[in-house]
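Researcher: Sequence of Oxidoreductase follows. Predict its structure.
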Amino acid sequence: MTERLVSHLRYAALAVPNFEEEKNFFIKHWGLTAVQSDEGLVHLAAEGSPEPFILRLRDDEKRIDLVGMATKNRRDLHKLADKLHAENVTFIHEPQELTQPGGGYGFRVFDGDGRVLEFSTDYELRASRKIREREPIPVKLSHVVFNSADLAGSAQWYIDHLDFTISDSLVTPTDVDLMHFLRCNRNHHSIAIAQGPHHSLHHLSFEMRGIEEWMRGSGKILRAGTRMIWGPGRHNAGDNTFAYFLSPAGNTIEYTTELAVLDEDTWHPSRMDTSLMSTQDQWGTAAEMSELVARESFNDIDEGLFVAPPV
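Model: Prediction complete. Tokens:
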């Protein structure tokens, strides 16, 4: 196996036009903690995660600002930067000291579709805590899923340049690719890419402590008046539970738990037929996947491609 230089997913950063409403939703209802808040910018942490923050919101037109990933150390970070330079990846800035919560050292690039990726290391960890039994708040950011108008090309960029590996794929009954689940460590996926009509955010997923906390969290969000798009259920790919909601800004966000951790020496990817109910939901408790559900997850066209965010 090729040595991976990317160690794990750190955070997602979104720009939203209804900043105060979105900020209040993620703090009051979703269960995140504000660690730094300025005018039009907030960094939100998960109580169970040592990451300095797992979600950043910025007041602006709707877009994915960036996705942050980590390397184990500066040696790996510089090796990754050298590799990406040699492969003619477009840099936004070179390795430098970072000024965000937790600090650190890192660089930013555009991926093949124009999304901004940040790679960092040597940042200060946050004092986290064990989430209590039945406490319905996220433990950490689980994964980020993109829509792409070119599924094959988008996924191949992560494979070629970042050494991600396909864990499983969703396909049509005629074996046409619909979604690839990509991993950078033993977690089944940290990034996934879905075939869509345009480039956009498909969803952000937040890990809960366990099934009980996941169900209580889902009930809490429903009682807050938030619309559940799909769930509750349990996927086949990744073996994780799912409950998808629509945030006030119209982004799909997920509570999940028990994402599969793989033995990479023995794992073989599967191609799962989405026409089989068990592919989408092993339990059969969620409504069947429909065009209405898919349309919500297509989201609005991301207008931020190949445009670096101001922070």
